[in-house]
Predict the structure.
Amino acid sequence: MTITQKTPQPSHHLMYDQLNAARTADKITIHFRDGRVATGCLAFNYLHGTGRVIDPDQKISTDFSIEEIRDLKLS
């Protein structure tokens, strides 16, 4: 029998609070559960639980839902 440990995931309430606080940050980095990483400015819709990370340097944006986020870091 193999025992695997899951890394603790932040609760939705904690993630909502972190995203709400990060809306005023100059730059954030979001790590997604599927392994993607997005860095840039944040646009977050608190009511729908969705958002977008916009990287103006590379001229790309990444849409996300709060369920997809593994970790959030302010840069």
